[in-house]
Design goal:
Layout lengths: L1 E2 H4 L8 E6 L3 H5 L1 H10 L6 E6 L7 H5 L4 E9 L2 E9 L2 E6 L4 H6 L8 E4 L21 H15 L9 E4 L6 H15 L4 H10 L1 E2 L1 E5 L2 E3 L5 H8 L1 E2 L4 E3 L4 E5 L17 E4 L3 H24 L5 H6 L1 H14 L7 H15 L8 H4 L3 H8 L1 H11 L4 H13 L4 E3 L2 E5 L5 E4 L3 H10 L4 H9 L2 H4 L9 H14 L1 H9 L4
Parallel strand pairs: 1-12, 2-3, 2-7, 3-6, 4-13, 7-8, 8-9, 14-15
Antiparallel strand pairs: 4-5, 10-14, 11-13, 16-17, 17-18
């Protein structure tokens, strides 16, 4: 079978406009894929230089394939099953900043360079003032500061040679945090005041929100998929069709980075927070409020939850309590909700419920509690479905055994499972979950260390959780049916 590079007849020669810190699956199936389509439509005309920013690993697969690879999008979109493959040609070169340092630094002197995209994990954007300017700095902010300083020197601080920073690391205000790190390092390294001014005034640090499930290389199916495509591809990358890239910037960069005009799901805004709130409350909140109930009802994967009328009905009920608190136009909220259901129904992904159950206490607090409070304040009554989800959490966390840092528990049907959370959380449930129901509930809802506040202040919450927990422990599926019918 031929190599993927033999399957591409002609490749355009485009200037490098983007440098990318990170070569992983997500970046290749998200911004690199979008840039490739914008190039094809004649809207961007720019290639990417990928930089491996860690000292381990290699780029042999990129070199072997001339940086070409395939992205397969599989899932549901507007009610239709999608299964499409595209060869991505937007990466022109892939280099290691440790192995190819001179070539890497030379990118700073490229007149055509305008954007830097990064995905260095949530722990990547950290400030370490002990990092060094000489040689290769250890942290990503250190590497970026050094790179920007090299560019500043190469172009004598020209105002039009500043860069646009597009971090996609999953932390709040990632662009603002990255800028703070760069400015702090510039001060720690005693770099010229002119450089600091150039960073502040000529570089644009965007905070971004990204959303797409990327499952990466399909090890179990790769051989079959390559046979269908007619070529080998060691960088094959699989993702869902849904995507969203919200880019917050004080300066409008949409004309320079016109991915939205190429039909890509990119949204430019001066405030990304409502979109993050929408994602956390609707997508993450639907997961967190539903999956523990699904597990206790005998279901193993998210898609099974969506195929079960009771659990799907419960998710709808929970979302009806969540959506009014999202501060965006109702049609946008509903469209996003519809897309969430399609994503959960993806026939190509086996998303295990127990994988989502990790750290459910902090997840309920971060993803569900704000919706609970908004509903209560608006209606002077507790939201029944979200309260029921809290009771399901208490049922799921019922255990009298801890081994190797996890709790061990049994479902009603006898299936054993483990509960993973923080040490303090697990210790609390180990000590209290087998006490009489009323005592267990009271101790839990009054524990402000778990929830950030005393939940007993919400009128009717204590009594409802006791009632729901009793029903769920007897039979979770039957309890959910009773809730939907208004019988409890």
């Amino acid at each position: 079978m031929k190599n993927i590079k033999e399957a591409v007849e002609k490749r355009a020669n485009r200037p490098i406009k983007v440098m990318q810190f990170g070569e992983g699956n997500f970046l290749r199936a998200f911004p690199d894929y979008m840039i490739d389509i914008a190039n094809e439509k004649g809207l961007f005309d720019g290639d990417i230089a990928v930089v491996k920013c860690v000292p381990f690993g290699n780029l042999d697969r990129f070199k072997k394939q001339d940086n070409l690879y395939t992205v397969i999008l599989r899932g549901k979109d507007n009610g239709e099953v999608v299964n499409s493959a595209r060869v991505v040609t937007s990466i022109q070169k892939a280099i290691g900043c440790y192995e190819d340092y001179d070539e890497y630094i030379a990118l700073a002197k490229l007149d055509s360079l305008r954007f830097i995209i990064s995905n260095t994990t949530e722990a990547g954007i950290v400030l370490d003032t002990n990092d060094h300017l000489d040689g290769i700095p250890e942290t990503y902010p250190g590497k970026l500061t050094q790179f920007l300083f090299e560019r500043f020197k190469a172009f004598d601080g020209a105002k039009d040679k500043g860069l646009v920073l597009l971090p996609v690391e999953l932390i709040d205000d990632n662009g603002k945090q990255l800028k703070k790190c760069v400015l702090a390092l510039a001060e720690a390294w005693s770099l010229p005041a002119e450089f600091t001014a150039w960073v502040k005034n000529s570089c644009v640090f965007c905070s971004t929100l990204v959303d797409r499930i990327v499952t990466g290389y399909p090890f179990d199916e790769a051989e079959k998929l390559c046979e269908e495509m007619g070529y080998t591809d060691e960088l094959l990358d699989v993702a869902e069709p849904f995507g969203l890239w919200v880019i917050e910037s004080e300066k409008d960069i949409s004309d320079e980075f016109p991915l939205d005009k190429a039909g890509m799901p990119v949204l430019f805004t001066d405030n990304q927070k409502p979109y993050k709130d929408r994602k956390v409350r609707i997508l993450n909140g639907a997961h967190t409020s539903t999956v523990l109930l699904g597990w206790l009802s005998g279901l193993e994967i998210v898609r099974e939850c969506m195929e079960d009328g009771t659990i799907r009905g419960f998710m709808n009920m929970a979302l009806s309590e969540i959506k009014p608190g999202v501060k965006l136009p109702s049609d946008e909220v509903q469209a996003f909700t519809d897309s969430v259901f399609e994503r959960f129904e993806n026939p190509f992904i086996r998303h295990k419920v127990l994988d989502i159950s990790l750290n459910s206490v902090s997840k309920w607090r971060a993803r569900v509690l704000s919706s609970f409070k908004d509903f209560y304040n608006a209606n002077n009554a507790i939201p029944k479905a979200l309260t029921f989800s809290f009771a399901a959490l208490l049922a799921f966390y019922t255990s009298n055994t801890m081994e190797d840092g996890v709790l061990k528990a049994k479902r009603l049907d006898g299936t054993e499972y483990i509960i993973k959370d923080g040490e303090a959380e697990l210790k609390f449930f180990l000590e209290n979950s087998n006490k009489p129901v009323a005592e267990y509930v009271e101790l839990t809802i009054k524990n402000s260390d778990l929830w950030g506040e005393d939940l007993s202040q919400y009128k009717g919450f204590n009594e409802a959780v006791v009632k729901y927990l009793t029903e769920i422990r007897a039979n979770a599926k039957v309890a959910a049916d009773k809730l939907l019918k208004g019988e409890i």
